[in-house]
Design a protein that fits this description.
With about 170 residues, the chain is α/β, with parallel strands linked by helices. It has 7 helices and 5 strands, in the order βαβαβαααβαβα. The chain starts with a strand and ends with a helix.
């Protein structure tokens, strides 16, 4: 059974990225984790954030899901800061919690970005693809979505639906 979770990394729990994530989650029965309501500190070489939400959260994700979709708004031509902090904390899985980190091997990763137009810059997906590769995960691909007039238009819905079908294949 391939269980899928969407990890939403947006500063607004109910913003534009949420609209896309909610559309997918409801239609395909995917679980959602909202990073903005988690307490995840920045990566620290001295491991001062050992008691925050990161290790329990990533352990739960690894235990319960085969596919992880990272959803992020486009902030300054890059992923959101919240999601970047989450990615930086993957270093805990390489340095401290190695057994947990090894369990990411063979899992699937995909990325969904969101902005206000179809204007994603080249190279945006590189950190996701390279991180998947480094962690031994299968990178299933990525899509860029956008919200116009506070709504998901039908063209974007078709892009989303097509992409999600490729994830299930």
């Amino acid at each position: 059974m391939n269980r899928t979770v969407i990890i939403q990394g947006s500063s607004r729990s109910h913003g534009d990225t949420y609209k896309i994530v909610n559309y997918i989650a409801l239609k395909h029965n995917f679980d959602v984790i909202d990073l903005s309501i988690k307490n995840i500190g920045h990566y620290d070489y001295d491991y001062k954030n050992a008691n925050d939400d990161f290790i329990p959260l990533i352990t739960k994700v690894i235990k319960n899901y085969d596919t992880i979709i990272f959803a992020t708004p486009v902030y300054w031509y890059s992923m959101s800061g919240i999601l970047k902090v989450f990615f930086d904390r993957m270093s805990d899985l390489i340095r401290i919690h190695k057994d947990t980190g090894r369990k990411l091997r063979g899992k699937n990763m995909a990325m969904l970005s969101c902005s206000n137009s179809n204007d994603l810059v080249n190279g945006f997906s590189m950190p996701f693809y390279q991180s998947a590769n480094y962690l031994g995960m299968h990178y299933l691909g990525d899509i860029h979505t956008w919200i116009e007039n506070d709504m998901i238009n039908n063209d974007v819905k078709l892009i989303i639906d097509s992409f999600v079908e490729t994830l299930k294949a």
